[in-house]
């Protein structure tokens, strides 16, 4: 009997964890920071999705020209900051895993089971978002599902689970923060732990922010797509990868209800040109600015005799696929900075940047700045 008791393994209990970092005050403080990071990711992520798949009620302006660059940069950097904060949060609360569930009364047992289920869903969705998001900024996709759709759906799941979690834990968090605020000096270990978590998040952001903030590229050792490509701009999809072959008799077709006109490259170059300094801002979070020269879309439609003030469907030489075309909203069509670009940084477009011509419009995701344009269709 004595031998059996001596060999029995006792599971740890919450009382066994005596570190001041395993406290409601630490968990609440980290929860606030993590909630801000997740909130920024959710709002900017939904915004990006709506821009790319706009419902009839949604409108996205063409100005300010840097707005999408900022929102998508915030989206990715907030996700990067959330990684060390989430790990610190898990460290602060993991002793709660060893709390024995109450089986009576049934209502309390059911509430505790629902709480733990919501936490499981929240963690699963949060890790899915953060891990797949990191792979996305690296443009590596070792899975078979379509990343944007899965990432968007999981974002709603994570946010819903977070709302449930906040609703359950809000009284505990408010009480813990109120007690912590009444203290003149929290334990030194607690301050060091919170400072380390916040510092790790800041270092992670600084190490990657150069992909969005050009001034930080020299100190952002892990910045994605910060290197130069052809004409001093990064490239996501090359002409070879897209299978582009420009025919010798290439013409740009401008079509509208009741008419059409084709333009040769020489004719496009003969039209009044405009140069605009605009960013390419991609959903992966990187962005870069260039001087683009071409024909304003509105002026091109007018030269063709087509109506203006309407949306325009843009079609690429690229074969059928998710990104072989886009729709330019009417507000962007009329913006004089929306160009059918023929040159980049003073040079004829490199094939990887869309030769013979591409769309460059202000405040648009790079994925909608269609390259290798072959047709503009004015929609009714």
Automatic annotation (TrEMBL):
Q: Which UniProt keywords apply?
A: Membrane, Transmembrane, Transmembrane helix
Q: Where are the annotated coiled coils located?
A: none
Entry's transmembrane regions: 30-52, 72-97, 117-138, 150-172, 193-216
The cross-references to Pfam families, in alphabetical order and at most eight, read: Oxidored_molyb
- State the superkingdom: Bacteria
List the SUPFAM superfamilies hit by this protein, alphabetically: Oxidoreductase molybdopterin-binding domain
Q: What is this protein called?
A: Molybdopterin-dependent oxidoreductase
Tell me what organism the protein belongs to. Micromonospora zhanjiangensis
């Amino acid at each position: 009997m004595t031998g059996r008791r001596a060999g029995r393994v006792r599971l740890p209990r919450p009382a066994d964890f005596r570190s001041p970092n395993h406290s409601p005050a630490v968990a609440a403080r980290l929860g606030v920071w993590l909630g801000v990071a997740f909130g920024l990711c959710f709002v900017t992520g939904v915004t990006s999705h709506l821009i790319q798949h706009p419902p009839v009620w949604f409108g996205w302006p063409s100005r300010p020209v840097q707005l999408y660059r900022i929102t998508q940069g915030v989206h990715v950097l907030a996700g990067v900051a959330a990684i060390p904060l989430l790990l610190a949060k898990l460290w602060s609360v993991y002793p709660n895993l060893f709390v024995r569930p109450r089986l009576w009364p049934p209502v309390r047992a059911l509430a505790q089971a629902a709480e733990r289920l919501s936490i499981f869903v929240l963690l699963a969705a949060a890790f899915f978002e953060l891990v797949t998001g990191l792979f996305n900024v690296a443009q590596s996709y070792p899975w078979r599902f379509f990343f944007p759709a899965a990432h968007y759906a999981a974002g709603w799941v994570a946010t819903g689970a977070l709302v449930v979690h906040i609703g359950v834990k809000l009284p505990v968090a408010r009480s813990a923060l109120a007690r912590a605020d009444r203290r003149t000096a929290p334990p030194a270990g607690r301050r060091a732990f919170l400072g380390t978590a916040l510092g790790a998040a800041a270092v992670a952001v600084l190490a990657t922010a150069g992909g969005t903030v050009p001034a930080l590229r020299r100190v952002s050792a892990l910045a994605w797509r910060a290197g130069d490509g052809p004409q001093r701009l990064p490239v996501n999809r090359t002409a070879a990868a897209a299978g582009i072959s420009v025919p010798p008799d290439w013409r740009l077709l401008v079509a509208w209800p009741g008419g059409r006109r084709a333009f040769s490259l020489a004719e496009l170059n003969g039209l009044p040109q405009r140069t605009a300094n605009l960013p390419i801002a991609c959903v992966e979070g990187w962005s870069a600015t260039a001087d683009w020269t071409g024909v304003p879309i509105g002026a091109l439609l007018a030269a063709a005799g087509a109506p203006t003030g309407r949306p325009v469907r843009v079609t690429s030489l690229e074969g059928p696929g998710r990104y072989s075309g886009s729709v330019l909203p009417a507000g962007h069509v009329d913006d004089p900075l929306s160009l059918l670009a023929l040159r980049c940084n003073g040079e004829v477009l490199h094939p990887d940047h869309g030769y013979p011509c591409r769309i460059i419009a202000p405040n648009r995701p790079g994925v909608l700045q269609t390259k290798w344009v072959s047709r503009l269709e004015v929609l009714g």
